[in-house]
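Page 42, continued from yesterday. The earlier attempt failed because a stray header line got pasted into the input along with the sequence. Redoing it now with the clean sequence only.
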Amino acid sequence: MPLLEHLAEFRKRMTRAVLFIGLFALVGWFFYDPIVDQLTLPICDLAEIRRTGSTECGNLFVGGVLGPLNLKIKVALITGVILSAPFWLYQFWAFIAPGLHNREKRYSIGFISVATPFFAMGVALGYFILPLAVKVLLGFTPSSLDNLVRFDEYLDFVLRLILVFGVAFELPVILVSLNLIGLVSGKAMIKPWRAAVFGIFFFTAALTPTGDPLTMGALALPLTVLYFGACGLSMILDRRKKNRVSTIADDVAEEIEAPAPIDES
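This time it went through. Structure tokens are written below.
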């Protein structure tokens, strides 16, 4: 396909993706209040904040004249990107699929179908940990002071937390995918397990926006279990590959040597 046709196809796919995001952003715009209520539950449920705050949700506030409008637009766009993810991901897939071989297409579809639920599980765990993380962090506020929490900063904190959990849960999917394409074996994965576990705890401590031991442990422990699970599954797949190769080798007929010429003398 010529370059101009590639650019035209890319523009068409991008336009469709933006339209889908815009349509679902309208959902976020009209359901703005319920979405905000759901996001503020971790703070609203904390008795410590409710006692000291000037509203039922403590000291959450929006600053500036344009602050409420900017916040509503931000929540609407984030909602649009999340809800329209299957549609704009399909547009991305439709753009790159013509350049892939059949085997690459099968691997890509398998990766997406497995990676999506793992990402959703990570996001769900992050949202479950969110109230505990908020409680721990706000617990450092001195009793003589009020903690004024800007809602836009709180929203960024929530997004970072759940995205870190969601992306981190892709670790086993990536490891098994590398095994399937033959880049790394199960034994090679499990051999440096001590360093791998240390690396998991180190990177979770660096990536989690809270930095508290509770949130770090809530992410590092499931990741460690998923790491060992990915290693075990990779070793099973390696064993199956080995058995399949040996079976094929046994079924191949041995080459029959040509008969020796008859000596007529």
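Notes: The chain has two domains: 1-99, 100-249.
Reminder to self: strip header lines before submitting.
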